[in-house]
């Protein structure tokens, strides 16, 4: 895996994911673990957050219904789906409107790898004021934006 | 004197940060333009092939990435990324080549069907003859991937600029606080005496 290099993950709407998969970044291995997530109307915020969290190696804060009941195979499945837990992902591309849904998870991600790049979607143009990194950079000069 | 040096270093870091932010903004604009071109081409392809012909239903059950990032250590501890694209497809030989070999030399070890070095072109998921707009969409998103990589390099420098001065200032504040905390008990005991 180390010799092959790092992957580019994508979390976005159907067109964004289809486009970047056409560009050749998609991976779906024999264990059925993809490096992409198509966000549709019925995709829950928990699912997006769950998929995103492990990409930045955050301490385990997976949302679960009953924390006392651990199903090891299920946890392995969740951990493998979570991008931040995977060390083979270098960049995460995410539509900005989806990033807004999980803004707290993005703001908690402090590491440079994997890098999170917010991109626009068809219905929601890019807004630099909402970008996590640019907001932090602006926070150096404006106290109200400083976190 | 040390404070002056620190301030000068902070000033240079801020200038570097502003320069990197400007470059980042330029790269972001290019990336967004490529992605928007890709969407338009995808819409044209969907119009030509049918609404449900270009979507997640056509994704392959097994995908291998054609693009990977290779990281190497650059100056100042920054990671340098290089986009590596998989090898060009060798033209497939159509015909009973293996059967012929078997007849000549007896049973031979048949090659594994999944051992091909070059991954399958994602265009093949959508059919053999795909419209030109779909190829244009693929080209746009491939350029977008390269721009994303370039943007990532600037992003890392911006992150380092944002994090390191703040950490240095916090360390300086903490050392000042410790000196003050150590000085207060001495003054208090002196006053008590």
Give the radius of gyration of chain A. 16 Å
Instruction: Give the helix/strand class of chain A.
Output: alpha/beta
Q: Helical stretch count of chain B?
A: 3
Which spans of chain B of ≥5 residues are poorly predicted at pLDDT below 50?
Answer: 88-100, 110-116, 183-193
Domain count of chain A: 1
User: For the report, how would you describe the main beta sheet of chain B?
Assistant: 2 strands, antiparallel
- Low confidence ranges of chain A: 57-80
Organism (chain A): Pan troglodytes (Chimpanzee)
Keywords (chain A): Hydrogen ion transport, Ion transport, Transport
Family (chain A): Belongs to the V-ATPase F subunit family.
GO molecular function (chain A): proton-transporting ATPase activity, rotational mechanism
Question: Keywords for this structure?
Answer:
heterodimer; A: 147 residues; alpha/beta; Rossmann fold; four-stranded parallel sheet; 6 helices; 4 strands; 14% strand; B: 193 residues; mainly alpha; two-stranded antiparallel ribbon; 3 helices; elongated; disordered C terminus; ion transport (chain A)
Would you give an account of this structure?
The complex is a heterodimer of chains A (147) and B (193). Chain A has 147 residues and is α/β, with parallel strands linked by helices. Chain A has helices at residues 14-22, 45-53, 72-81, 96-101, 103-108, 132-139; strands at residues 7-12, 36-38, 89-95, 115-119. Chain A has one domain: Rossmann fold. Chain A contains six helices and four strands. Chain A has a four-stranded parallel β-sheet, with helices on both faces. Chain A is globular and about 50 Å long. By secondary structure, chain B is mainly alpha-helical. Chain B has a domain at 1-54 and 148-187. Chain B is 61% helix and 7% strand. Chain B is built from three helices and two strands. Chain B has helices at residues 2-49, 97-105, 132-192; strands spanning 67-73, 79-85. A two-stranded antiparallel sheet of chain B has the order 1-2. In chain B, helix 1 (2-49) packs antiparallel against helix 3 (132-192). At the A-B interface, helix 1, strand 3, strand 4 and helix 6 of A face helix 1, strand 1, strand 2 and helix 3 of B.
């Amino acid at each position: 895996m180390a010799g092959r290099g790092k992957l580019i993950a994508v979390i976005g709407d159907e067109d964004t994911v289809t486009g970047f998969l056409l560009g050749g970044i998609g991976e779906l291995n024999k264990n059925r673990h993809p490096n992409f997530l198509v966000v549709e109307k019925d995709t829950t915020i928990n699912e997006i957050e769950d998929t995103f969290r492990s990409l930045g190696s955050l301490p385990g804060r997976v949302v679960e219904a009953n924390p006392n009941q651990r199903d090891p195979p299920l946890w392995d499945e969740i951990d493998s789906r979570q991008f931040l837990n995977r060390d083979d992902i270098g960049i995460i591309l995410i539509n900005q409107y989806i990033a807004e849904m999980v803004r707290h998870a993005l703001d908690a991600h402090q590491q440079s790898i994997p890098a999170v790049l917010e991109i626009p979607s068809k219905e929601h143009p890019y807004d630099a004021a909402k970008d996590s990194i640019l907001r932090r950079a602006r926070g150096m000069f404006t106290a109200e934006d400083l976190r | 004197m040390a404070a002056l040096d620190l301030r000068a270093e902070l000033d240079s870091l801020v200038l570097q940060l502003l320069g990197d932010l400007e470059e980042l903004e330029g790269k972001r604009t290019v990336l967004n333009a490529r992605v928007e071109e890709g969407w338009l081409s995808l819409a044209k392809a969907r119009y030509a092939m049918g609404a449900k012909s270009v979507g997640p239903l056509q994704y392959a059950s097994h995908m291998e990435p054609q693009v990977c990032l290779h990281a190497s250590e650059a100056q100042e501890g920054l990671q340098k990324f290089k986009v590596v694209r998989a090898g060009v497809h060798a033209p497939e030989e159509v015909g009973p080549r293996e059967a012929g070999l078997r007849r000549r030399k007896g049973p031979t070890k048949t090659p594994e069907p999944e051992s091909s070095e070059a991954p399958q072109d994602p265009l093949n998921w959508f059919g053999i003859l795909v419209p030109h707009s779909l190829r244009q969409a693929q080209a746009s998103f491939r350029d977008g991937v390269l721009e994303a990589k370039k943007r990532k390099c600037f992003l890392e420098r911006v992150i380092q600029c944002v994090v390191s001065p703040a950490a240095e200032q916090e360390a300086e504040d903490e050392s000042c606080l410790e000196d003050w905390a150590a000085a207060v008990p001495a003054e208090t005991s002196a006053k008590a005496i």
